[in-house]
Write a structure and sequence with these properties.
CATH topology of the largest domain in chain B: Amino acid/polyamine transporter I
Structural class of chain B: mainly alpha
Oligomer: heterodimer
CATH superfamily of the largest domain in chain B: Amino acid/polyamine transporter I
Shape of chain B: globular
Strand content of chain A: under 5%
CATH architecture of the largest domain in chain B: Up-down Bundle
Strand order of the largest sheet of chain B: 1-2
Number of domains of chain A: 1
Number of strands of chain B: 2
Largest sheet of chain B: 2 strands, parallel
Helix content of chain B: 55-70%
Number of helices of chain B: 29
Radius of gyration of chain B: 26 Å
Distance between the termini of chain B: 23 Å
Helix content of chain A: 55-70%
Radius of gyration of chain A: 14 Å
Chain lengths: ~60, ~750
Amino acid sequence: MTLLKEIRYWWRELSGESVYDRYAAHARSHGQVPKSRREFERERMDAREADPREGFRCC
Amino acid sequence: MPEPATDTARPQRKISTKSVVIWTLVGLIGATGWGVLALSRGEEISAAWLLAAALGSYAIAYRFYSKFIANRVLKVDKKRATPAERLDNGVDFHPTDRRVLFGHHFAAVAGAGPLVGPVLAAQMGYLPGTIWIVAGVIFAGAVQDMVVLFFSTRRNGKSLGQMARDEIGPFGGAAALVAVFAIMIILLAVLALVIVNALAHSPWGVFSIAMTIPIALFMGVYLRILRPGRVTEVSVLGVALLLLAIVSGRWVAESSWAEAFTLAPSSLVIWMVAYGFLASVLPVWMLLAPRDYLSTFMKIGTIVLLALGVVIAMPTMKMDAVTEFATSGAGPVFAGSMFPFVFITIACGALSGFHALVSSGTTPKMVQKETQVRLIGYGSMLTESFVAIMAVICACILEPGLYFAVNSPAGVLGPTLESASEAVKSFGFSIDPATLAQAAKDVGEPSITSKTGGAPTFALGMSEIFSAVIGGAGMKAFWYHFAIMFEALFILTTVDAGTRVGRFMLQDTLGNIYKPLKRVSWWPGVWLTSAIVVGGWGYFLWVGVHDPLGGINQLFPLFGIANQLLAAVALAVCTTLLIKSGRLKWAWVTGIPLLWDVAVTLTASWQKVFSDDVKVGFFAQRKAYQDALDSGAESFGTAKTRDAMETIVTNATVDGVLSALFAILIIIVLADATRVCVKAIRNPGTAELKEAEYVESKIVAPAGLWPTAEEKAELAAAAGAAGSDGTSGGTPVAAGKP
């Protein structure tokens, strides 16, 4: 069970699936109500649209 | 190594016997590997020796040299808070576990580059490439990545361009900007050319790659509308569909549809340009983001599989250690002798300027502790170098005759398998026409002669290794197309992302003349600038496909020069910063790689501009063909018509002017950097650093992959302190996973 949890943790971190949870936890710890996942992911895409240098990969 | 924690206040100075024994063994393994490589002449050796030499050297370099740079040169400070800690917003600035960030950084720096250059350089044998890949990464490439990452982290994640402008001056900064833009155009053209060459006349390949577009669109809709952010679900679906696309490619190739998917290079160019334009004006979520997921999963998966395959299959190297092309410079894959052209051809994997853009982009905003730049910067680059070594192995386990038949331009090989066989014989190797036909049949392709660009060669080698482990000869065709798909996938992603970056830079610059151009939502501006960027690389792609001398042959050296030029900018910024921050005595750490890189780049540019050899010098080439045209000749060299001769004259002029431009840019940046350095050395007090302020760090986290005894004690102490008072506000926080 712990091994599965371990794998799940690393997988979510590496694949970027946990990005929203991290944001939501951050917002809550600062006393804010986090945006919905849909809204958050949209804003993340819009940011990438606005500055394509973020997340650019090498050849 | 688990050592008893004794004194936690001071680092242990005593060196344990165990550590001495282990590092002596590692050194011996590496030395034996190099010994076998150096001493074997004429006989075939196992790839295991190549791996031993590389891995042994990496381990020693990481343990000793990178530690020296981190502690003595950069003086990384574990008490200083990184931007991720100070500016933590839970989104782009966030202290990330070092092992996770290592994964992200590696996935961002490693792409098609380390798989292409080493394959092309294999025409000089496996030894020159291997030595440069290993020595280059240890003393130049990994050092550049780590030092740029460190300085950018100290500056809240500023980009290389901004650092050049802030720390060197507006002149050097502007030259760096022009360099990045020019490189982007050439890079995209060369990568697109690699794909066009691999897919030409291959219905299987074209069908599978075409299918990635609907797959990505489906994934995009899924992530945007159906289940936002569920990356795992959508990736599992996407990878399954992708494998289905590879398998079904064979059915298409054997059916009556085959003709519709059999495309000539010139039609592929039109498709590529149209795709590039559309992909870059469509919203990010539709194509780019889902493709990014797919290509990253495929990339990491394939690299892991390949490493396992090489270790299990342990193939034998068939290529000579050093071929005569190393000295004669008359190789068919690219012209020019070993110095400087091996060092130009192999950029990614040894020293790649492009990494400086990643190391000064997303990664520095996520570094948890300054001490971790060693693992993330130096460590990731060593891993990429290992990928390059595997590419060398893939190319060199093939029969040399097959290697040259695949990698020589069509103009050299002639129209038939018989003529190709004759041409290979003239290089001093041999392959008979029947073997060539069989090799093509094995991988389910109509033909594999003159499939230049590196990707098909790499795919052949990979299918050789994989089929030895899983599935036998019957699976060769699947593995070949798997490899082509995996390269094509991330090259197409780079084409999309690179076009966007180029457009962004153009919008930013032109926006100073006409304001609305800066707005990303003003579509006429977006369309216009996208069209300019696509037109730029599309022109070189078109030229590359139609060049009678062979596009890869002509364009790859330009790409190499451009990439190494960017490395020179990055190393110049690093050296300037070392000097300005009072580390003059350590300036050689980036200064020597800089001098080497400048020597290589300027020699290559000089030869490309001024050499009398028509195979090397662009202007000599131009003159030879122009003279032939003036004399009224109907054909000359590999150009069989007057039109072809005129094409060569135009191409050679454009390429020659570009080579000269690159050399001038590098000289401008260097001159400006030298001026700043001399000023800083003369008046040490006046140097102005643009570092972010010092804030004490509250995070406790290990520096390397595994915590040392001292770090374990610190972690335990921090966890205890946080547990006793219930909050983590004023006390140190033990970082890492919960």
